[in-house]
Amino acid sequence: MTDQVSLTFDGVAITAAAGQSVGAALTDAGIRSWRSTRRGGRPRGLFCGIGVCFDCLVTVDGRPNQRACLVPVRDGMRLESGGLREVDARG
Amino acid sequence: MPGTHPDVVVIGAGALGAATAWFATRAGLTVEVVERGSIVSGTTSACEGNLLVSDKEAGPELDLALLSHQLWRGELGEFGGLWEFEEKGGLVVAATAGGMAGLTELTERQRAAGIDVREVAADEIHDFEPHLTPDLAGAAFYPQDCQVQPMLMAAHLLRLARELGARVRTGTTVTGFLRDGDRVTGVRTDRGDIAAGHVVNAAGTWAGELAALAGVEVPVLPRRGFILVTEPLPPTVFHKVYAGEYVASTQSSDEGLQTSTVIEGTRAGTVLIGSSRERVGFDRTVSLPALREIAGKALALYPGLAPVALMRTYLGFRPYCPDHLPVIGTDPRAPGLAHVAGHEGAGIGLSVGSAKLLVEAMTGATPTIDITPFRPERFSLQEVS
Amino acid sequence: MVEFDLAVVGAGPAGLSAAVTAAEHGLRVALVDAGTQPGGQFWRHPDEQHPRPDEGRGQHLWSRFTDLRARLHGLESAAATTGRIELVSGHQVWFVEPAGEGFALHLTAVHGETRLPRVRAAALVLCPGGYDRQLPVPGWELPGVMAAGGVQALLKAHRSVAGRRAVVAGTGPFLLPVATGLAEAGAEVVAICEAGSLSGWARRPIDAAAVPSKALEAVEYAALLAKHRIPYRMRTVVTAIHGETEVGAVSVGRLDRSGRLRTDVSLPDLDVDLVAFGWGFTPSLELITAVGASTRVDVDESLVANVDDWQRTDVPGAYVAGEATGVGGALLAIAEGELAALAASRDAGRPVSEASVRRLQRQIARGRRFAAAMHRAHPVPAGWQDWLRQDTTVCRCEETTLGEICDARRELGATDARTVKLLARPGMGWCQGRVCGFAAAKLAKPVGEALTTSDLAPLAKRTFAAPVSLETLATAPTESDGAT
After folding, report:
1. Which residue ranges does the record assign to the FAD dependent oxidoreductase domain (chain B) (predicted)?
2. Nearest Cβ partner for B155 among C106, C413, C416
3. What 8-state DSSP symbol labels residue A9?
4. C470 CB within 8 Å of a chain B CB
5. Averaged pLDDT of chain B
6. What is the pLDDT of residues C203-249, one digit of tens each?
7. DSSP structure class, residue B204
8. Are residues C76 and C39 in the same domain?
9. Angstroms from C428 CA to nearest CA on chain B
10. Which of A80, B134, C84, C421 has the most CB atoms at less than 10 Å from its CB?
11. In whole numbers, what is the pLDDT of chain C averaged over residues?
12. By the 8 A CB rule, do A24 and C158 touch?
């Protein structure tokens, strides 16, 4: 168990305290938005902070639409900004 | 409501009531719409907005569908943008060679009946729908299948009718009818009486109850259906996509749970996934077995949707008649009363053709197509289940 | 298949208290919670896998939590001599199905793999808690605008500070711990904007935080506000948020006695990079409506569950405790959770202390009276629509604007919240109206008209209580599969 974990956000390395949420890690790294809206293309990040509003959706290790405020960081985690999920024909 | 005496009172502010109000005002009639809830609060707000020819065969319903299609594109074409009218076409897919053989037979009959349909070979399917499973035997493409957003459609038709002088009274419940002998001369409501030349029963799934208030039998019954709604996605499903069995299930009278796959994208990015049919009265209990079966069948066609989140589901009650044809026309058993209801899962698409025919019947105009197959008095007591 | 006497949903103050009490009365209990560890929003704290000496920093009633947590751990162990608790953390209920005389809860993991897809129990205590109520403001969709509770969660659980210069705005005593928490963590809090005037409630603003038994807390806040020189401005509201890609400044305005914006007072903009908003709380009601329990509108215009003197709903076997019976804070929630557990135990044929029941009922009645007074002192100001513009976003998910809602009403003839939703889509997106529901319901009515159950109940009905994947639904076990 280490107290610091390393992860990447859009390929850029960031560190976080073990046990933090992805949203907290991004906040501490000075990143405030990681998603753009479907209609207006507007930036979004944390809003409710407790899993209710789904504004903070982020792609975690290739899984889209995870709530950054609820997902705990893990060493080596890959975070990606974006918008909508792309559907893969093969399932 | 003292002093009002419209030519027509329309009961119900759903798709059928709205279309009737529009065509009646266009025909120069004064119209008042009464609705016990709010506008578009019944089945209109719990369906998909299909304008289909693909699930029909030669016969009166197809004639009505082709008439409606003409109206959506023609007379109402200028408003299409308001209600997200989209001629996206329907793709009916067959999973097996046997299913494809059946589909081919169907399309041959449909083509002879005037439906525009072309066969799609298995290796062409992905040009239409890149995310469909590759394990399909073939498909048929119906360019005439269209989609509208049903709530916007009904609300805008009501607005357009209002601009031509129609009145819409929500929160007004019809409690009975004004009579002069057999003749219906208006409605009694919880907010006062309205005398009118014609009373139109456009009460959707509740049209049977309303007819009973007038002492006539119109056997409109509820058939429950669920629809699943996904998270917003980028364009993923481009046409209305059906499994071949959908056509059979719309015509079935089976009581138990039936599901057949209907999948389509919407302007909002959500994908709507249906469909189920159950005869359980007006039971609003959400059935997990029904939802599960719909989801399972959808994944057989679109395996890539497996991780996609469902945000919600909704249920509605399709109004159906025992012979699966709608009721459209004036009622000789109660002169002054007319009905336009019972379109089962096709009421949105057929609303405009139905309303046009009804207004022709009320005004004595020559009917555009034969309306007699839809006559309200066609049900003998024995046929009513 | 796991079988339980009781399933408790939510491991905040009410749920923890309910689960522990019920197990101590001999019931086998499943405690289902979305969080990775118990505590709920109120006792959010750092990851216990990475212990910190300052675990309880910024917490209130912390010893109540550590006591409940210790009892929970004891009841989780095989050595427990009474009932047992199985804690199912990190899972959300997505569907409630009737199961014989009881209930089947269908679960999905918040993140990662689902460990337990279904919990069946003879009875349910629902303690879903709530979240900050929000009102739209021009610019509130900019990054850097957050719910006050979200700012608090970052501080308490993650030691993260959401901004450097903050304004904390809205109404209610909860603004105080958020502002002082930010200041203690090193942020500059340029103002607390409290929309209420608090006259008739308390002579000093700080009394707003003073639950009778929590006078010390009020003194503590007063000291912290003074220490960090945080201005506490009453009858003051944030009327617009400015910035291109994130918050840069806010406009503020002054309200008159009736809660309308004063046009004769002009206040300078505040340069901030963080806005924390809270307008009281919205209880989570989807599980209550999912079991078919009836609801009512509380003093604060929140939809809440109808419960009797024993926390029973009108659905046999379903109990509710905590904010979902009416927002009233943690102390009340703890008492309600305990009483619900006593009721469930008694209804299951276990002996319970009548004296405890009476004590809890008295405490709850007192707590309710206090909560009602608090709600009356902190209403949503009458003029909250005054500072909206036609292009102000109301529904953050679907990006529905005020203008589109007005069109649905004026042009299209929508006369209620449900129809506005159908035509203009507020509440149709990812959060299913949890954030904009209150505001959208208010905007669907003539200004100033109070909300009714028939406005709110249709919006609170969410068949899927949480988003669920098609795959999970397609493979869900259902009660129709027969006995397993």
Report:
1. 7-360
2. C413
3. E
4. yes
5. 94
6. 444 444 444 455 567 788 889 999 999 999 999 999 999 999 999 99
7. G
8. yes
9. 9
10. C421
11. 93
12. yes
